[in-house]
Design a protein that fits this description.
Elements (H helix, E strand, L loop, with lengths): L2 H10 L1 H11 L3 H6 L8 H9 L2 H6 L2 E4 L7 H4 L8 H9 L5 E3 L3 H15 L7 E4 L12 H5 L4 H17 L4 E2 L23 H16 L12 E5 L18 H8 L1 H8 L4 E4 L3 E2 L2 E2 L4 H11 L5 E3 L8 H4 L5 H11 L4 E2 L3 H11 L5 H17 L12 H7 L3 H12 L3 E5 L13 E4 L25 H8 L4 E3 L4 H9 L3 E7 L18 H12 L4 E6 L8 H4 L3 E4 L7 H9 L65 E8 L3 E2 L4 E9 L5 E11 L10 E10 L4 E8 L6 E2 L5 E2 L3 E8 L7 E7 L1
Parallel strand pairs: 1-2, 1-10, 2-3, 3-4, 5-6, 6-9, 12-13, 12-14, 14-15, 15-16, 18-26
Antiparallel strand pairs: 7-8, 11-16, 17-19, 19-22, 20-21, 20-25, 23-24, 25-26
Helix pairs in contact: 7-8, 10-11, 10-19, 10-20, 11-13, 16-17, 20-25, 21-25
Length: 751
């Protein structure tokens, strides 16, 4: 930022700058909870009465940047306002509140200069972006990172992403995605934290805290946006954008809690989802956006539509035209329109004709201005816009090191028969085979705007740093690949999904390894050589044949900038695998949606063989091939000595203790999980629910006692009256390595 920019912006807001800075320094959680009752700084409040209706609508109009950055042109095309000059003219006229997915600090500087120097009211712009799992340094996709079962890791990567993003002029990220995803066919599950409520809540809060750092006004903070409100991940048949029809109890039990966790952590904004909910599109659903969000939860922050979400009310058959769509979305509670331009086009006339109250328009504008104040933009519109700082903060060594650490800690080892892994670092000929063995492709994963595969490190490059003479073959010629396997002592087979097979609009009917890659795996297995499967994926897959039965099987997801080095660290034992599945891997595509926390039904199949007229498929039991929470280490973890502080739980927490011993040859980290089951309740309960987990690192021969505490509140559920309740009775519990492992089992009674 040059001196002229600072002088002019400070002079323009001199009278109110001190008050604005003090106002923005308040904790976001408190600030937005009481925002409606707390006045803005006087100088900012005065702007509302000075605005024309068009300028007010302009504060609610967010567009994709015409001068776009990275992959934004294909992900979010700018549409009609495709000219940068045209957008500058809109800024001067007060018709634009900000842009998203733009081209860095220089673009932001030029647009902000236009706003604070040349527009009539000189209101600063917002700059937003989809910083889903990193900016230029790309971290593992969120689903992979959830496999770490480590919210602190998610907090650290979000913090690092915010440092890069804020240096590029970005104030606001459309993340975290906190949708629960229980149907693996849905491609956007890759952006979330999986199927479990507790894990999703913890990851949501951690990411919000990481993005926002010490406070929204800090120059290295970006505001979080919890999305997509609500139940977007519950679309019928796993089809993206599809209708959702779930009970209010299910919403309150499953889909609401991660949003509540994000708001409790200070998220000041929320994005309405694309889907309809029991026939009412979320973007025009006043029960969701007003009754629940505003009145019941007391959320005082900003609601933004998803990309053209308001306009899509027409295709839903809920609005007759654009004017009707703008009216319905706005009155339902959507404060800001993303990309459609409908608010700018229609709100002034709707207010003039009395179809939308002026008070509602002023309310939305006030929320936008409050958001900009909280971000520190009225004090210094250029606080995050500095091309020199941008260059210095992108991809520094310490951030790339964090990407490598996060990648290794996201890899799940599903099988390791005969201790094929870790691979020897010398003395064996290694053949690296498959479409993901090498090359600058399919490394960073879906939904990254600014990072590129060209800047990421591929697998063969990383492996050859340890074993220089590793052979590589892309597997495109089966005979050649088999010959390479026969000439090797050990085969590493890198197969799975390309990154465009997961993500938005990438629902799959068959969640299997592509047929040609499955054939490659069968041919490699037929050679008799020991082989390791590296499974690249953005979802749970239904594995079969040589892939499911591989001597060693690692889920490597999409790990980002340090994809290859992170995988190599696990392969060669530099890092012991410690991640666990955040989603259940089903036995077949036809089994989904499958999730561990299902209900028993009235006809559960007893343990053992499949019995007639019980709840199972003709050919498979109602269980996972690889369960939620499953993951192996390079140690051998033994669970023993379960102890409960009491056989009853009343007002004093119940303490659960168990001993974990590493009888293996390598130091390893175990994720110890606590599950419960309410045996009899007035509403049927899941067979198991995760209530806590902890990570313990043990050297060979070491043992450690782990301790969990259960309170009465931990046993609550949504009752018939749709309120949280607890009921006395018997409970089962398990301290176990996965959701379907027996581990250590016990019982207690809630009095």
């Amino acid at each position: 930022m040059n001196g002229q920019d600072r002088r002019i912006s400070r002079r323009a807001w001199l009278a109110g700058a001190g008050a604005a800075l003090a106002w923005s320094a308040s904790p976001a959680r408190a600030l937005f909870a009481i925002m409606d009752a707390r006045p803005l700084p006087a100088s900012v409040e005065a702007l509302i009465s000075q605005m024309t209706l068009v300028e007010k609508a302009g504060q609610l109009n967010l567009l994709a940047a015409a001068w776009a950055g990275g992959a934004a042109i294909s992900l979010n095309p700018a549409g009609a306002a495709s000219s940068f000059d045209a957008q500058l003219r809109m800024v001067r006229r007060g018709e634009l509140t900000g842009v998203f997915n733009g081209n860095g600090a220089e673009m932001a500087r030029r647009m902000q200069t236009e706003a604070v120097h040349r527009s009539r009211l000189k209101i600063p712009l917002l700059f937003a972006a989809d910083v889903i799992h990193g900016l230029r340094t790309v971290f593992p996709v969120p689903l992979a990172e959830a496999a770490s079962f480590d919210p602190d890791l998610a907090r650290r990567t979000a913090r690092a992403a915010a440092v890069e993003a804020s240096a590029s002029g970005i104030d606001w990220t459309f993340a975290p995605m906190v949708d629960i995803a229980r149907d693996a066919r849905w491609g956007r599950g890759v952006e979330g934290s999986g199927e479990d409520v507790l894990l999703s809540r913890l990851m949501a809060a951690a990411r919000v805290e990481g993005f926002q750092g010490s406070g929204l006004a800090a120059p290295d903070a970006v505001a979080a946006c919890a999305k997509h409100f609500v139940a977007y991940g519950a679309g019928e048949a796993g089809l993206d954008y599809n209708s959702v029809d779930v009970s209010e109890r299910t919403l309150r039990d499953i889909y609401f809690p991660p949003f509540q966790a994000a708001f409790a952590a200070g998220a000041p904004t929320v994005m309405a989802s694309f889907n309809d909910l029991s026939g009412i599109p979320a973007t025009a659903n006043s029960w969701l956006l007003d009754t629940i969000l505003r009145k019941e939860w007391g959320f005082g922050g900003l609601v933004v539509s998803d990309y053209t979400g308001d306009e899509e009310l027409i295709a839903h058959g809920f609005a007759k035209d654009g004017r009707d769509a703008a009216r319905l979305a706005f009155l339902a509670g959507v404060d800001m329109s993303m990309q459609s331009g409908l608010y700018l086009k229609y709100l002034p006339d709707l207010v003039e004709k009395g179809e939308v109250p002026l008070a509602r328009l002023d309310e939305a504008v006030r929320r936008v201005l409050a958001f900009k104040v909280a971000l520190g933009l009225f004090d210094d519109p250029f606080r995050r816009i500095d091309p020199a700082r941008e260059k210095a903060r992108l991809r520094p060594p310490e951030t790339l090191a964090l990407a490598r650490e996060a990648g290794a800690r996201s890899i799940v080892m599903l099988r390791n028969e005969g201790e094929v892994l870790p691979l020897p670092r010398s003395g064996k000929r290694i053949a690296l085979i498959g479409p993901f063995a090498g090359g600058g492709h399919d490394l960073i994963g879906p939904w990254n705007v600014y990072g590129t595969d060209r800047e990421a490190v591929d697998l063969v490059t990383a492996v050859r740093e340890t074993v220089p003479d590793t052979t590589m073959d892309d597997g495109s010629n089966l005979a050649r690949a088999v010959a390479a396997a026969r000439a090797a002592d050990i085969v590493v087979l890198a197969i799975g999904e390309t990154q465009n097979m997961s993500g938005e609009a990438q629902s799959r009917t068959e969640i299997v390894v592509p047929a040609e890659q499955q054939a490659l795996a069968e041919a490699i297995a037929a050679t008799g050589k020991p082989y390791v499967v590296l499974l690249r994926t953005g979802r749970a897959l239904a594995l079969s044949g040589a892939v499911a039965k591989a001597p060693a099987l690692l889920v490597t997801w999409f790990l980002g900038s340090q994809d290859g080095p992170a995988i190599a660290d696990i392969l060669f034992g530099i890092v012991s695998p410690s991640a666990r599945l955040p989603v259940s891997f089903p036995r077949a595509s036809g089994q989904v949606p499958y999730y561990y926390a299902h209900r028993n039904t009235g006809r559960p199949n007893p343990p053992g063989t499949l019995q007639p007229y019980k709840a199972h498929f003709r050919d498979y039991p109602n269980s996972a091939l690889f369960a939620f929470g499953h993951g192996l280490t390079y140690g051998n973890m033994v669970y023993s000595d379960l102890r409960l502080s009491s056989k009853t739980l009343a007002d004093t927490p119940l303490t659960i203790r168990a001993t974990i011993t590493n009888t293996g040859r390598m130091t390893a980290t175990e994720v110890v999980q606590l599950y419960i089951h309410d045996v009899v309740a007035s509403v049927t309960q899941p067979v198991r629910v995760l209530k806590a987990f902890t990570r313990v690192t043990l050297a060979p021969g070491a043992r450690q006692e782990v301790t969990f505490a259960l309170t009465r509140a931990d046993l609550s559920f949504i009752d018939r009256g749709l309120a949280p309740t607890t009921e006395p009775g018997a409970f089962r519990l398990w301290v176990a390595p996965s959701a379907e492992a027996e581990g250590l089992a016990g019982t207690f009674t809630l009095t």
